[in-house]
Design goal:
single chain; 195 residues; mainly alpha; 10 helices; 78% helix; 0% strand; elongated
């Protein structure tokens, strides 16, 4: 799409196209190695149009791409956690969805949990906290139906998330099979739910 054709699109559609282009290039090359000129070229729009929709520049685009990815991840996690099973089975399904998402999109793991710290920008670091909070909420909702005391729920779900993400990272690095990492994460998570 050229700038001439993009004028025919609504502002919402143009913004979505720019987010899509940014997502593609950020996930492919990494946030640190991509500038607005690269995003504009990938989206076949002018740099000025990118700034019109994202006045904060690259960091605004990072946040938009983060929200886009988190939306997909949250949808999968909610679906997995909503199965009419016991809390332990729902936890297994939720962790399976988490592992599957990042096995299918290892670049999304890097973007959400690694690039964010390399950027050394406060607003972007806040997005990493938001990413974790989003997943924590799903874990806590499953754990809330167990014997985990309410005052320990946040700490327990944070522990499970940290454990699971360590397993995801090890699987992505090829240090362990994803299935093995998932099974170990499930055992750890369900042990936290049994008191």
């Amino acid at each position: 799409m050229s700038d001439t054709n993009s004028h025919r699109k609504s502002a919402v559609a143009r913004r979505a196209d720019i987010i899509h282009a940014a997502r593609t290039i950020f996930l492919d090359q990494g946030y640190a190695d991509v500038g607005l000129t690269d995003v504009a070229a990938a989206g076949e729009v002018s740099r000025g149009l990118v700034y019109r929709h994202f006045p904060g520049g690259r960091s605004d685009l990072f946040l938009a791409v983060t929200e886009d990815l988190l939306g997909e991840l949250r949808e999968r996690l909610r679906y997995a956690a909503s199965a009419p099973f016991s809390p332990a089975k729902r936890m297994e399904h939720l962790l399976a969805a988490l592992f599957a998402f990042f096995q299918e999109r290892p670049d999304a793991y890097r973007f959400l949990f690694r690039d964010v710290w390399a950027a050394r920008e406060e607003s972007i670091e806040a997005s990493a906290v938001a990413a974790r909070a989003s997943v924590l909420a799903e874990l806590a909702s499953v754990m809330a139906g167990t014997d985990v005391p309410r005052d320990e729920l946040e700490v327990a779900s944070a522990g499970v998330l940290g454990f699971a993400l360590a397993g995801v990272e090890m699987a992505l690095a090829g240090r362990v099979e994803a299935e093995t990492a998932w099974r170990v994460a499930c055992r750890y998570a369900t042990s936290q739910m049994e008191r």
